[in-house]
Amino acid sequence: MALARHSALSRHVQLARAARSYKATAATGSRQISCNASAMELQSSVPHKELLRALKDMVPSLTTDSHKGQAGKVGVVGGCREYTGAPFFAAMSSLRMGCDLAYVFCTPSAAPVIKGYSPELIVIPELLDSRDFVNVV
């Protein structure tokens, strides 16, 4: 009995790991689940339906009484006048993976650009620009 429970638990852990790897690379369009040997072994041994079932067990179901923010909030800190893409892509990736709210904390010069990329992001222009550091010192 204990051995059966251990093997079932082990199988569940393997499925969860494979599902996380599968979910992480599904966004990139990669055909392989992962580069490590154990995940590649699981790719051939775990049927696609079992992976989908494991993913479905991990994702909380939507209900009519839930509201914005209950499935997660993410804060991304970064971005300046020259570099606006990285904070945008990090925040958008979190939204696409199921997060409800994504906040981007950036410099005032980057805020209109990042906000212009997507209206789904909450942009807060509170970081100091490099020009502000010169004025402080």
Give helix and strand order, one letter per element, not per position. HHHEHEHEH
Mean pLDDT value: 75
For the largest beta sheet, what order do the strands appear in spatially? 1-2-3
Specify the helix fraction band: 40-55%
Total helical elements: 6
Mass-distribution shape? elongated
- Derived from helix and strand composition plus strand pairing, the structural class reads mainly alpha
SS strand fraction:
5-15%
Radius of gyration, in angstroms, nearest whole number? 20 Å
Distance between the termini: 69 Å
Describe this structure in words.
By secondary structure, this protein is mainly alpha-helical. Helices cover 52% and strands 9% of the residues. The protein contains six helices and three strands; from the N terminus they run H-H-H-E-H-E-H-E-H. A three-stranded parallel beta sheet has the order 1-2-3, with helices on one face.
Topology:
Blueprint: H1 2-26, H2 37-45, H3 48-58, E1 73-77, H4 85-96, E2 101-105, H5 111-117, E3 122-124, H6 130-136
Parallel strand pairs: 1-2, 2-3
Summarize the structure.
This protein is mainly α and 137 residues long. It is built from six helices and three strands, in the order αααβαβαβα.
